[in-house]
Each structure stands twice: as structure tokens, then as C-alpha cells.
Write a structure and sequence with these properties.
Blueprint lengths: L8 H8 L3 H8 L12 H11 L8 E4 L7 H7 L4 E5 L2 H10 L4 E4 L11 E5 L12 H11 E12 L7 H19 L13 H11 L1 E7 L13 E8 L1
Parallel strand pairs: 1-2, 1-4, 2-3, 4-5
Antiparallel strand pairs: 5-7, 6-7
Length: about 240
Amino acid sequence: MFSPQGPTLRELVVQALSSVERGYDLLAPKFEHTPFRTPDRVLDATADALRPLGPFGRGLDVCCGTGAGMRILRPLCQGRITGVDFSTGMLAQARRTHPDAEWVRADVRVLPFTEGFDLAVSFGALGHFLPAERPALFAGVYRALRPGGLFAFPIGGPPPVTSAQYWTLLGFDLAMQVRNAVWRPPFVMYYGTCPLHAVRTDLVATGFSVTTVPLTALGRREDGSPRCRLVLARRT
């Protein structure tokens, strides 16, 4: 799962016993060499789905990490592109890789933007928010978008109960619950807390008009359903 340039087991343990912010500060220099970084094929599939809906003006990557989302924002957006994250370490890496973008350190649950963007994207971040925190996140993105602006992010379909992946992810979530029950500060990272139906409900309650498109380039499951969908939430 990890390349030789990635973090050691000791470094991963230290990260897991830290807060989310501190953990990602520590992981930042080697983040690009971990499986936590959004794969290029997911970024490319997202770009292919968004391209017919553009071009867009200004773009925002929510929970940008080391800036992988800039790979798709730059060709899709004609205006300024911005990344926002609360990890100083991740933003430092992003600045080195993409010096032409704008970077903002902020808690995305209280985004400091008002009607400044036409497209917002996010990759792999929803698991860092408890269900009760999602409305604040979505409300902040809603405020950050201009009327008619689009918030887009991929979301994977649930693996079959009979699959090894299902039990692996369930085991990870249970381990995190135990860790957070006995250790402080908490490290919020869960895979099973953001199913599509719950995310759609929260987006609609915020005021978004929500549709989805299958990312067929990422494959289909045995029952024919897509492995991943792109959520398209538009500020009406």
C-alpha cells in the first residue's frame, strides 16, 4: 500500500495518536506517497464529468491537502483557483507544487468566503466530519459559491456485505471508535458515516439542488451499478 518513500509504521502510529490537524501536519511531507492521496484516475474521471458543464470562473478545492485537486481545477476554471485546508503542513506542500494558486488556512466548517466561486470540489474529505458536522460544512460551501455555482465531489458506492472490502472498512471504523473512546485528542476518520442518501439529504436541507452522474471510467460492480458517482450540488 505504501511506496518506499512513504511513511514508516512508526510515523503512521504517531499520526494516528495525534489530532487530525497535527496528524496531517506530520504526514504532509510524505502524503503523496500514501494510498490516502486521491488517485489520478478518480481526478481524471471527475474532470471528464465536469468538463461538459463548464467552463467555470473561479474554483475552490475544499480540504485541499497537498493540492491534488488543482490537477482538474486549473483546466476547468478560467479565473483564480484556491485551496483551503486547516493543516499548515499540507498547505506548505501544496504551495511548493502549485505556486500559482491561492492557498488559505481555515477550518472548512466556517469557510471565510462569500459568493466568490463558481465551482467547488472536494476529494476524500467527508470521512473527517461527523454526521452532525456536515451541515456546517455544506452551508459554508453554499455561501462560498455564487448563485448557480456548483459543488462537486466523488462518492463511492457501498461495497457488498460479502466482500473483503466491506469488512476491512467496517473494522477500520470500529478501531477508530475504540481509539477515540480511550485516547485524546480524537482523530476523526471514518468510511461508513457518509453514505450517498445521507449526504444528499444534508445538501438538499442546505439549499442545494442535487443530482449525480456515474463515473463509469472507474468501473462497475457485479450488479451493474457504478463503483463511484459524482455528486453535483448546485446553489439555486
